[in-house]
Amino acid sequence: MRPEILYPFFAETGSLQGVGPRIAASLEKVAGNRILDLLWHMPVDIIDRRAGPHLADIKFEQIATIEITVGKHDVAPAKSRKPYRVWCHDDTGKIQLIFFHPRRDYIGKLLPEGEKRLISGKIEIYNNQLQMSHPDYIVPLQNRDEIPDIEPVYPLTAGISGKVMARIIGEAVKKAVPLPEWMDQSLINREGWPGWIEALKIAHHPRNAEQVTPNSTARTRLAYDEILANQLALEIVRKQTKKKKGRIQKVRGTLIDKLLKQLPYSLTGAQVRSFDEIKKDMEQPSAMVRLLQGDVGSGKTVVALLAMLIAVENGTQAAILAPTEILARQHYKTLNEMTDGLGVKIAILTGRDKGKSRQALLDDLVSGEIDILIGTHAIFQKDVIYKNLSMAVIDEQHRFGVEQRINLFSKGEEGIGMDILAMTATPIPRTLTLTVYGDMDVSRLDEKPPGRKPVDTRVMALSKIDDVVMAAKRAINNGARIYWVCPLVEESEVLDLAAAEERYRHLCQIFGDKVGLVHGKMKVREKDDVMARFAAGELDILVATTVIEVGVDVPEATVMIIEHAERFGLSQLHQLRGRVGRGADKSSCLLLYGAALSGNAKARLNIMRETEDGFIIAEEDLKLRGAGEVLGTRQSGLPKFRVASLEDHHALISLARNDARLTLEHDPDLSSERGKNLRILLYLFERDEGVKYLKSG
Ligand code: ADP
Ligand code: MG
Q1: pLDDT at 566
Q2: Atom of ligand 1 nearest to the CA of 578
Q3: One domain for residues 500 and 550
Q4: Could you tell me where the DSSP H helices lie in 551-672?
Q5: Does ligand 1 come within 6 angstroms of the Cβ of 294?
Q6: Contact 206, 621 (CB under 8 A)
Q7: What own/partner pairs with CB < 8 Å and gap ≥ 24 does 49-57 have?
Q8: Which protein residue has the closest C-alpha to ligand 1 atom 23?
Q9: 85 domain-assigned
Q10: What are the residues facing 198 on neighbouring strands?
Q11: Lowest-confidence range among 516-520, 654-658, 680-684?
């Protein structure tokens, strides 16, 4: 339960002075609907109004606050396009105030002729004359307080002016109450960081331009708070899973040896290393929680199979969770082929299985007849009962969240932790690995199986589509099979589909019935059918939307064409390209871009041309884009950082990780004085899932 001290932070923005439903709606768009969200909305610049020159001394355009005497109002005729002017002066010179479409009576009241006023805004020089259009502030001399000397500038949204935003966030900061220090005092001393509330105030009431940069002292402290909360939560989950007593599963040799003997290849160094790490984990009396990270085609499947065979050798069951049915079927096929003659019973269960056959399968599962079960999330439904499931492989981990990973544990035997091997083909930069997968140990397959030829990658304008079609024709005549991926239209499956269907019809006109189409709206059976025809060579071209079918394996496919490649993330492009270059023949990849390509987009596509190493691509992508985009906003289970930005603050991650580890080692339930304060931190950054596993305190 959220501590009471945090209640003010979670109050709605509507509770602030001057925030009605309309403004609240705008605030929600740019920041969020709670006071907390406003506190995390950081200024990007300042306006310094401290300059107060005499008019005669102004030589350049500048922002200033000046004391003037109001002179004549030059009211333009009602229908005229001319602005409303007010002539003003001080003892040294003159300035015109200019208003477009003003409310006349209002200006009359604001600037009574003959009186003195303080005005603040941007002074411009036009035809050697000073002028200011729409001053930010016009106040009587005694109200000088109403003009802030330095004003923060926030990212804005329609419906809220900069002035209003600054005022509202100022109100929000007033609601923030001091919180007990959760930081290690020696760290604070070493870094010279302010306390939390002080840091918050400095961040929102900056006194100089340096203070609105992400690496200022105050902002760094706030970022560290958030990263620490992230690392603590992950470490708590990690300890929780590690704490469970696991089985000691030793390699008996029977199945593993046989498998290694009958494989048509020997393992790569990276595969051997990863399997060794897995073996060590499984021998431990605690549960394994390991991530196997490796590019498409790096050979994760055989490593996963080896891990599962350890479980089977020890008389227990294993399961693979796949994100889609197609992938589940693919695994079923390859694993059956690989284990041919080993006497291992493998079964598949998807949402499609119903009635009698499903029941028969469930019976075999509970009796222990089935050794390895493959499937979609259907394999973890309530009525799916295992005899003794001891290990689970999660394929394409990035499509599942931490929660799902935790739910998995309930399928193991009472009181015994399950070994978990998560796999991902989405290579993410090292710094991000810690923030996303910090609760797991990581093995990397950073070496490709031998014999893979580089994929010849080219970047071309979509306007050259006719040339592309000609090239496709030539390739098909030489026996190639082609993937043709159609534009990803953000957030719109309907548009995705329309574009793909149009291309499909276009290609059908040229290539006849040798073209197939798969998309997310199709029934699984239809999809499988088309895929099978492509795999069998009945189709030459497979038109597909986005990345739904990313796991499929058709070694004969040697050409990948991607339309509007600039709309894809580099990781996605990399994964798509990984679909080709799997067989003996030389492969190519065409990245087609739409009309206007920005310099940045061009640079990104060029990276694809330069390297096929997913880890390098991920690092480069991080440099060119925000971390959120690298990871893909649609993916679940990813941390959302509010104050911290992984580009600016990644150096803090390992510091926070060590901090979190050390702290939990000494104080596993966060029950010490500092521990209690750290709980508040976890709630403040909404990492409640971590606290759930602690003893209440
Ligand atoms: P991933 O799941 O990592 O994308 P796969 O496990 O599907 O990759 O392997 C890709 C291809 O490489 C498969 O056809 C597999 O048989 C082959 N392969 C895996 N390991 C090796 C190896 N050590 N030597 C040669 N080929 C391998
Ligand atoms: Mg795979």
Answers
A1: 86
A2: 4
A3: yes
A4: 570-577, 599-610, 614-624, 627-631, 646-649, 651-666
A5: yes
A6: no
A7: 49/120, 49/137, 49/147, 49/148, 49/149, 49/150, 49/151, 50/149, 50/150, 54/90, 54/91, 54/92, 54/93, 55/89, 55/90, 55/92, 55/93, 55/94, 55/95, 55/130, 56/92, 56/93, 57/92
A8: 267
A9: yes
A10: none
A11: 516-520
In this predicted structure, the answer to whether residue 336 has a pLDDT above a threshold of 70 is: yes
Task: Give the burial string for 366-383 (b: 16+ CB within 10 Å, else e).
Answer: eeeebbbbbbbebbbeee
pLDDT at residue number 635: 41
On whether both 24 and 172 belong to a single domain, the answer is: yes
Q: How much distance in Å is there from the Cα of 592 to the middle of ligand 2?
A: 26
Residue 451 CA: nearest ligand 1 atom is 25
Q: Which of 260, 291, 298, 452 to mutate to test the pocket of ligand 1 (most atoms within 8 A of CB)?
A: 298
Distance (angstroms) between ligand 2 centre and the Cα of 237 equals 26
Measured in angstroms, how far is the CA atom of residue 539 from the centroid of ligand 1?
A: 24
| Domain contains 623 | no
Task: Considering every ligand atom shown, identify the ligand nearest to the alpha carbon of residue 395 and give its number.
Answer: 2
pLDDT digits (tens, 9 = 90+) for 191-206: 999 999 999 999 999 9
Q: Which residues contact 261 (CB under 8 A, 6 or more apart)?
A: none
**302 and 440, same domain (yes or no):** yes
Q: Which of 147, 175, 199 is the last residue of a domain?
A: 147
**Which of 293, 301, 338 gets mutated to test ligand 1 (max ligand atoms within 8 A of its CB)?**
301
- Lowest mean per-residue pLDDT among 76-90, 122-136, 270-284: 76-90
Considering the domain architecture, whether residues 386 and 321 belong to the same structural domain is answered as yes
Model confidence band, residue 14 (pLDDT cutoffs 50, 70, 90): very high
Residues 174 and 38 in one domain: yes
Please tell me what DSSP assigns to residue 83: P
Looking at the structure, tell me whether residues 343 and 491 fall in a common domain.
no
Q: Report the alpha-carbon distance of residue 187 to residue 185 in Å, rounded.
A: 5
In ligand 1, which atom is closest to the CA atom of 298? 3
Q: Is the CB of 36 under 6 A from ligand 1?
A: no
pLDDT of the residue at 459: 93
- Residue owning the nearest CA to atom 20 of ligand 1: 299
pLDDT classification of 516: cutoffs 50, 70, 90: very high
* CATH number of 96's domain: 2.40.50.140
Residues 509 and 595 in one domain: yes
Task: Give yes or no for residue 118 CB within 6 A of ligand 1.
Answer: no
495, pLDDT greater than 90: no
Q: Please work out whether the CB of residue 425 comes within 6 Å of at least one atom of ligand 1.
A: yes
* Residue numbers of the domain that contains 13: 4-46+167-212
| Residue identifier of the C-alpha nearest atom 9 of ligand 1 | 299
Residues 261 and 390 in one domain: yes
| Residue owning the nearest CA to atom 26 of ligand 1 | 449
Say how many domains are in the chain. 4
* Cβ(268) – ligand 1 distance below 6 Å: yes
Q: Which two tokens stand for residue 433?
A: 């690995």
* pLDDT at residue 455, as a whole number: 92
Q: Which residue has the higher pLDDT, 450 or 267?
A: 267
pLDDT by residue (tens digit) across 53-69?
999 999 899 999 999 99
Mean pLDDT to the nearest integer, 220-239: 91
Q: Is the shortest distance between the CB of 449 and ligand 1 below 6 Å?
A: yes
On average, the pLDDT of the chain sits at 87
Which ligand has the shortest distance to the CA of 614?
1
Q: Give the single-character DSSP code of 127.
A: T
Pick 396 or 189 by higher pLDDT: 189
Centre of ligand 2 from the C-alpha of residue 521, in Å: 23
Ligand at shortest distance from the CA of 445: 1
Q: How far is CA 110 from the centre of its chain?
A: 49
Last residue in a domain, options 543, 576, 611: 611
Q: Quick check: is 349 in a domain?
A: yes
Which numbered atom of ligand 1 lies nearest the CA of 555? 14
CA of 296 to the centre of ligand 2 (A): 7
Share above pLDDT 70 across residues of the chain, in percent, rounded to a whole number: 92
Q: What is the pTM of this model?
A: 0.69
